Amino acid sequence: MPANSGQGASHSSPVRSSINSAVTAIATTPEKIAGMFRRRYPTVAITGMSGVGKTQLADRLTKRATPDVALEIGSTVMERRTRRSARLQGFRFLVVPGENAATRLTALDEVFHDAPVDGVVHVVANGYATARGVSGSHKVPNVSREEQLGAELEDWTITAHRIAAMAVRRDAPIWLVIAVNKTDLFADEIDKAVEYYSPGSGSPFGNRIDELRGLVGGAKLWVDVLPVSTQDASVSGSPSSAMIDTLVERLGHLSGHS
After folding, report:
1. CB 245 within 8 A of CB 258
2. pLDDT, tens digit, for every residue of 73-110?
3. For residue 129, what are the domain limits?
4. Phi, psi of 209 (to 5 degrees)
5. Is the alpha carbon torsion for 125, 130, 134, 135 positive or negative?
6. 102-109 helix and 145-169 helix, angle to the nearest 10 degrees
7. Could you read off the pLDDT of 7-23 as tens digits, one per residue?
8. Is residue 31 domain-shared with residue 78, that is, in the same domain?
Protein backbone atom coordinates (compact mmCIF):
# COMPACT_ATOMS: atom_id res chain seq x y z
CA MET A 1 0.00 0.00 0.00
CA PRO A 2 2.72 2.52 0.84
CA ALA A 3 4.48 1.55 -2.37
CA ASN A 4 1.34 2.18 -4.36
CA SER A 5 0.84 5.51 -2.60
CA GLY A 6 4.38 6.50 -3.39
CA GLN A 7 3.99 5.51 -7.02
CA GLY A 8 0.80 7.55 -7.27
CA ALA A 9 2.55 10.54 -5.78
CA SER A 10 5.40 10.29 -8.24
CA HIS A 11 2.97 10.34 -11.14
CA SER A 12 0.87 13.19 -9.69
CA SER A 13 3.78 15.61 -9.40
CA PRO A 14 4.06 16.37 -13.14
CA VAL A 15 0.27 16.40 -13.35
CA ARG A 16 0.07 19.01 -10.62
CA SER A 17 2.80 20.95 -12.38
CA SER A 18 0.81 20.92 -15.61
CA ILE A 19 -2.35 21.98 -13.81
CA ASN A 20 -0.53 24.80 -12.04
CA SER A 21 0.92 25.97 -15.35
CA ALA A 22 -2.52 25.90 -16.93
CA VAL A 23 -4.04 27.85 -14.04
CA THR A 24 -1.26 30.43 -14.28
CA ALA A 25 -1.77 30.74 -18.04
CA ILE A 26 -5.51 31.22 -17.60
CA ALA A 27 -4.93 33.80 -14.89
CA THR A 28 -2.59 35.86 -17.04
CA THR A 29 -4.42 35.39 -20.34
CA PRO A 30 -6.85 38.34 -19.90
CA GLU A 31 -3.93 40.74 -19.48
CA LYS A 32 -2.09 39.24 -22.44
CA ILE A 33 -5.18 39.37 -24.62
CA ALA A 34 -5.93 42.93 -23.52
CA GLY A 35 -2.35 43.92 -24.29
CA MET A 36 -2.55 42.27 -27.71
CA PHE A 37 -5.69 44.17 -28.65
CA ARG A 38 -4.30 47.43 -27.26
CA ARG A 39 -1.34 47.07 -29.59
CA ARG A 40 -3.28 45.83 -32.59
CA TYR A 41 -4.32 49.36 -33.51
CA PRO A 42 -2.40 52.55 -32.74
CA THR A 43 -3.40 54.64 -29.76
CA VAL A 44 -3.14 58.40 -30.22
CA ALA A 45 -3.21 61.09 -27.54
CA ILE A 46 -4.91 64.37 -28.45
CA THR A 47 -3.45 67.10 -26.25
CA GLY A 48 -3.59 70.88 -26.03
CA MET A 49 -4.88 73.59 -23.76
CA SER A 50 -8.55 74.32 -23.14
CA GLY A 51 -10.50 75.85 -26.02
CA VAL A 52 -8.26 74.86 -28.95
CA GLY A 53 -10.78 72.35 -30.34
CA LYS A 54 -9.49 68.95 -29.23
CA THR A 55 -12.93 67.39 -28.83
CA GLN A 56 -14.14 68.76 -32.16
CA LEU A 57 -11.05 67.40 -33.89
CA ALA A 58 -11.64 64.00 -32.29
CA ASP A 59 -15.24 64.22 -33.53
CA ARG A 60 -14.04 64.80 -37.09
CA LEU A 61 -11.47 62.02 -36.88
CA THR A 62 -13.94 59.48 -35.49
CA LYS A 63 -17.00 60.76 -37.37
CA ARG A 64 -19.18 61.44 -34.35
CA ALA A 65 -20.65 64.58 -32.82
CA THR A 66 -20.49 66.10 -29.36
CA PRO A 67 -23.47 68.24 -28.24
CA ASP A 68 -22.85 71.98 -28.49
CA VAL A 69 -23.52 72.44 -24.77
CA ALA A 70 -20.72 70.03 -23.91
CA LEU A 71 -18.37 71.81 -26.32
CA GLU A 72 -19.08 75.16 -24.68
CA ILE A 73 -18.35 73.84 -21.21
CA GLY A 74 -15.32 71.78 -22.11
CA SER A 75 -14.37 68.40 -20.70
CA THR A 76 -12.65 67.72 -17.39
CA VAL A 77 -12.25 63.98 -17.97
CA MET A 78 -10.37 62.03 -20.61
CA GLU A 79 -12.50 61.11 -23.59
CA ARG A 80 -11.92 57.85 -25.44
CA ARG A 81 -12.86 57.46 -29.10
CA THR A 82 -12.39 54.71 -31.68
CA ARG A 83 -12.49 55.34 -35.42
CA ARG A 84 -14.87 53.05 -37.30
CA SER A 85 -14.27 54.19 -40.88
CA ALA A 86 -12.20 52.18 -43.35
CA ARG A 87 -9.25 54.57 -43.15
CA LEU A 88 -7.59 54.39 -39.73
CA GLN A 89 -10.17 51.81 -38.67
CA GLY A 90 -9.57 50.79 -35.07
CA PHE A 91 -7.40 53.79 -34.21
CA ARG A 92 -8.02 54.77 -30.59
CA PHE A 93 -7.96 58.47 -29.70
CA LEU A 94 -7.55 59.62 -26.10
CA VAL A 95 -8.56 63.27 -25.65
CA VAL A 96 -6.72 64.71 -22.65
CA PRO A 97 -8.74 67.44 -20.88
CA GLY A 98 -7.29 70.92 -21.27
CA GLU A 99 -8.32 72.23 -17.88
CA ASN A 100 -5.38 72.66 -15.52
CA ALA A 101 -6.80 70.26 -12.96
CA ALA A 102 -5.87 67.03 -11.23
CA THR A 103 -7.88 65.04 -13.80
CA ARG A 104 -5.76 66.51 -16.59
CA LEU A 105 -2.48 65.59 -14.91
CA THR A 106 -3.82 62.10 -14.20
CA ALA A 107 -4.79 61.72 -17.86
CA LEU A 108 -1.35 62.90 -19.00
CA ASP A 109 0.30 60.35 -16.73
CA GLU A 110 -1.91 57.61 -18.15
CA VAL A 111 -1.25 58.29 -21.82
CA PHE A 112 2.47 58.94 -21.45
CA HIS A 113 3.46 56.56 -18.65
CA ASP A 114 0.89 54.01 -17.49
CA ALA A 115 -0.25 52.95 -20.98
CA PRO A 116 2.04 54.85 -23.39
CA VAL A 117 0.49 55.95 -26.67
CA ASP A 118 1.93 55.41 -30.14
CA GLY A 119 1.73 59.04 -31.18
CA VAL A 120 0.53 62.49 -30.22
CA VAL A 121 -1.67 65.06 -31.94
CA HIS A 122 -1.04 68.32 -30.10
CA VAL A 123 -3.71 70.89 -30.98
CA VAL A 124 -2.95 74.61 -31.06
CA ALA A 125 -5.01 77.56 -32.30
CA ASN A 126 -2.58 80.37 -33.18
CA GLY A 127 -3.92 82.47 -30.32
CA TYR A 128 -7.58 81.93 -31.25
CA ALA A 129 -8.56 79.43 -28.56
CA THR A 130 -12.10 79.77 -27.26
CA ALA A 131 -11.89 81.52 -23.89
CA ARG A 132 -13.67 79.71 -21.08
CA GLY A 133 -14.41 80.64 -17.50
CA VAL A 134 -12.72 79.02 -14.57
CA SER A 135 -14.36 75.74 -13.58
CA GLY A 136 -17.52 76.50 -11.61
CA SER A 137 -17.77 80.06 -12.96
CA HIS A 138 -19.78 81.37 -15.90
CA LYS A 139 -17.62 84.46 -16.28
CA VAL A 140 -15.54 84.30 -19.46
CA PRO A 141 -12.19 86.10 -19.18
CA ASN A 142 -11.13 88.72 -21.71
CA VAL A 143 -7.85 87.27 -22.98
CA SER A 144 -5.67 88.83 -25.68
CA ARG A 145 -4.16 86.83 -28.53
CA GLU A 146 -0.68 87.36 -27.10
CA GLU A 147 -1.84 85.92 -23.78
CA GLN A 148 -3.33 82.95 -25.60
CA LEU A 149 -0.03 82.26 -27.36
CA GLY A 150 1.77 82.50 -24.04
CA ALA A 151 -0.68 80.05 -22.48
CA GLU A 152 -0.07 77.65 -25.36
CA LEU A 153 3.65 77.71 -24.62
CA GLU A 154 3.06 76.96 -20.94
CA ASP A 155 0.68 74.14 -21.82
CA TRP A 156 3.13 72.69 -24.35
CA THR A 157 5.92 72.67 -21.76
CA ILE A 158 3.87 70.34 -19.54
CA THR A 159 3.13 67.99 -22.43
CA ALA A 160 6.69 68.11 -23.80
CA HIS A 161 8.14 66.97 -20.47
CA ARG A 162 5.98 63.87 -20.58
CA ILE A 163 6.78 63.16 -24.22
CA ALA A 164 10.49 63.38 -23.36
CA ALA A 165 10.11 60.97 -20.45
CA MET A 166 8.22 58.51 -22.66
CA ALA A 167 10.82 58.76 -25.43
CA VAL A 168 13.65 57.93 -23.03
CA ARG A 169 11.92 54.67 -22.06
CA ARG A 170 11.11 53.61 -25.60
CA ASP A 171 13.32 52.21 -28.35
CA ALA A 172 10.97 52.98 -31.25
CA PRO A 173 10.56 56.58 -32.47
CA ILE A 174 7.58 58.64 -31.32
CA TRP A 175 5.65 60.74 -33.78
CA LEU A 176 4.11 64.11 -33.04
CA VAL A 177 1.69 66.10 -35.18
CA ILE A 178 1.12 69.74 -34.30
CA ALA A 179 -2.43 70.37 -35.55
CA VAL A 180 -2.88 74.11 -36.15
CA ASN A 181 -6.64 74.39 -35.68
CA LYS A 182 -9.18 77.16 -36.31
CA THR A 183 -7.56 78.10 -39.62
CA ASP A 184 -10.96 79.39 -40.77
CA LEU A 185 -10.28 82.36 -38.44
CA PHE A 186 -6.95 83.27 -40.07
CA ALA A 187 -7.23 81.90 -43.60
CA ASP A 188 -4.83 84.51 -45.00
CA GLU A 189 -2.11 83.67 -42.48
CA ILE A 190 -2.11 79.87 -42.50
CA ASP A 191 1.42 79.54 -43.89
CA LYS A 192 2.72 82.01 -41.32
CA ALA A 193 1.01 80.10 -38.51
CA VAL A 194 2.38 76.75 -39.68
CA GLU A 195 5.87 78.23 -39.76
CA TYR A 196 5.45 79.60 -36.22
CA TYR A 197 4.79 76.10 -34.87
CA SER A 198 7.49 74.38 -36.96
CA PRO A 199 10.90 73.17 -35.76
CA GLY A 200 13.76 75.40 -36.84
CA SER A 201 11.52 78.44 -37.31
CA GLY A 202 13.18 80.44 -34.55
CA SER A 203 9.77 81.28 -33.07
CA PRO A 204 9.04 80.79 -29.35
CA PHE A 205 7.06 77.62 -30.08
CA GLY A 206 9.50 76.36 -32.70
CA ASN A 207 12.34 76.77 -30.23
CA ARG A 208 10.48 74.62 -27.69
CA ILE A 209 10.09 71.90 -30.31
CA ASP A 210 13.81 72.13 -31.07
CA GLU A 211 14.59 71.81 -27.36
CA LEU A 212 12.49 68.65 -27.13
CA ARG A 213 14.15 67.10 -30.18
CA GLY A 214 17.56 67.99 -28.82
CA LEU A 215 16.68 66.34 -25.52
CA VAL A 216 15.37 63.03 -26.89
CA GLY A 217 17.27 62.96 -30.19
CA GLY A 218 15.90 63.93 -33.58
CA ALA A 219 15.80 60.30 -34.72
CA LYS A 220 13.48 59.38 -31.84
CA LEU A 221 10.91 62.12 -32.45
CA TRP A 222 9.22 62.70 -35.80
CA VAL A 223 7.43 66.04 -36.03
CA ASP A 224 4.83 67.22 -38.54
CA VAL A 225 2.88 70.49 -38.54
CA LEU A 226 -0.48 70.50 -40.34
CA PRO A 227 -3.23 73.13 -40.61
CA VAL A 228 -6.76 71.95 -39.81
CA SER A 229 -10.24 73.32 -39.28
CA THR A 230 -13.00 71.50 -37.47
CA GLN A 231 -15.69 73.80 -38.88
CA ASP A 232 -17.80 72.93 -41.92
CA ALA A 233 -16.46 75.83 -43.93
CA SER A 234 -14.29 76.65 -46.90
CA VAL A 235 -10.74 77.67 -46.02
CA SER A 236 -8.65 79.39 -48.69
CA GLY A 237 -10.97 78.08 -51.39
CA SER A 238 -10.92 74.44 -50.23
CA PRO A 239 -13.35 72.59 -47.97
CA SER A 240 -12.12 72.11 -44.42
CA SER A 241 -12.71 68.39 -44.86
CA ALA A 242 -9.70 68.32 -47.19
CA MET A 243 -7.48 69.34 -44.28
CA ILE A 244 -8.95 66.57 -42.11
CA ASP A 245 -8.35 64.08 -44.93
CA THR A 246 -4.72 65.18 -45.12
CA LEU A 247 -4.36 64.69 -41.37
CA VAL A 248 -5.96 61.23 -41.55
CA GLU A 249 -3.60 60.24 -44.36
CA ARG A 250 -0.59 61.48 -42.42
CA LEU A 251 -1.61 59.64 -39.25
CA GLY A 252 -1.92 56.44 -41.24
CA HIS A 253 1.52 56.93 -42.77
CA LEU A 254 3.21 57.73 -39.46
CA SER A 255 1.62 54.70 -37.82
CA GLY A 256 2.40 52.35 -40.68
CA HIS A 257 -1.28 51.92 -41.54
CA SER A 258 -1.41 53.90 -44.77
Report:
1. no
2. 444 456 777 766 667 778 899 999 887 667 888 889 98
3. 41-254
4. -65, -45
5. negative
6. 30
7. 444 444 555 555 455 44
8. no
pTM reported for the whole predicted model = 0.78
Spatial distance between the Cα atoms of 38 and 96, rounded to a whole number of angstroms: 18
Q: How many domains does the chain have?
A: 2
3-state secondary structure the chain: CHHHHHHHHHHHHHHHHHHHHHHHHHHHHHHHHHHHHHHHCCEEEEECCCCCCHHHHHHHHHCCCCCHHHHHHCCCCCEEEECCCCCCCCCEEEECCCCCCHHHHHHHHHHHHHCCCCEEEEEECCCCCCCCCCCCCCCCCCCCHHHHHHHHHHHHHHHHHHHHHHHHHCCCCEEEEEEECCHHHCHHHHHHHHHHCCCCCCCHHHHHHHHHHHHHCHHHEEEEEEECCCCCCEECCEEHHHHHHHHHHHHHHHCCCC
Q: Do residue 147 and residue 48 come from a single domain? A: yes
2 vs 107: CA distance, rounded Å: 63
41 neighbors 93 (Cβ within 8 angstroms): no
Query: So what's the pLDDT on residue 100?
Result: 61
151 shares its domain with 162 = yes
Determine the distance from the C-alpha atom of residue 240 to the mean position of all C-alpha atoms in its chain, rounded to a whole number: 21
Judge residue 177's burial from the number of C-beta atoms within 10 Å of its C-beta, 0-12 exposed, 13-18 middle, 19 or more buried: buried
Residues 90 and 201 in one domain: yes
